[in-house]
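Marked as duplicate of an earlier ticket. Keeping the data here for the record.
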Amino acid sequence: MKMWIFAVLAALAVGASAQSCTCATMKWAICDGTPCSCTLLIGNGTKQPLDCTALVPKCFLMKAEMDRARKGLSTRTIGGKQHETAIVDNDGIYDPECENDGKFKAKQCNNTDVCWCVNSAGVRRTDKGDQTLKCEKLVETNWVRLQLTHKEGPTNVNKDNLKTAIANEINSRYKLNSSLVKEIQYDPDARMIVVDVTKPKGERINDLSRMAYYMEKDVKALPLFTGEKNFTASVGGQTLMMEKIIVYYVDEEPPTMTMKHLTGGIIAVIVVVVLAVIAGLLAVFFFQKRQRKYKKTQQREMEQM
C-alpha cells in the first residue's frame, strides 16, 4: 500500500514539474529537465538555448519563424512608410544569419546569391547585390516609431495618462525602460496612437528591435508569450485593445538605398519637383533675357536722341 501511494505521489510530482517547466517569453520553446531548461528550434534541427527571463533576440525568432513557416505553421506581413529616414520591414520574413549572441550579421543573403545589408533590427537598409556585397558594420536602430490603431469603444482618453499607461505596459511586458518612451501622439477620431521609443546614439544596453517585434506579433498575429495575453493599455478605467500596428525603424545612420528601388509614386513626385524647378529656372532665364533686350532698346533710343 505504501509503495502504491509513493508511486502516485511521484507521478503527481513529475506532472507538476512538467507543467511548471515552461518558457514565459517564448510559447514555441521546448522545455524539460530538472532544473528546467528551454530551447527553440531555429532550423535544421538546431536547438537554441533560451533565457526565459528575457525577450528572445529577434534574429533567433525570425529563424524559428522561418522554420515554422516551412512546416506551414506561421507567416507574417507588414508594410507602410512614414518618417523621412525610417525604414520598414517590407521584404517579409527571411532566414537570417545570426551571431552567437542573437544579433543579426550585417550581411544577409537568405541562403541565396542575392545579398543586402541590415540594421540591428534585421531590416534591409541598402540595395540588394551579389555575394561580393560589403557590409562594413551592423548599424544600430536607436529610434522605433510604433503606429498603433485601437479598436472602437474608449472615449475621452487623456493623452498624458495614455503615455504613462503605454510606457508602463512596455516596461512590464517587454522589460524595456519606460523612460525610453519619449513621446506619444493621439488622434481620437482615427483611433491612432503614435509612440516614439528612442535611446541615445551609441547606447547598446537596450535592444529596441526585440520590443518592437514582440509588440508587432502581439497586435498583428498571436503573442509570442506563453500566456498569449494581448497588448492593451488601461487609461482611466478604460481598456484600449490594439488592432493594427506599423513599425518604423530609424537608424543611427541613414539608409543607403538608391532611386531605382523607390516606389513609382515617390519617383513621380521627384520627377514633378524636378520639372517644376527646371520650369522655374527657364522662366527666370527668359525674364532676364527680356530685361536685357529691353535695356538695350532703351539705350539705343537714348543714343539716337
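See parent ticket for discussion. The CA atoms of residues 40 and 48 lie 5 Å apart.
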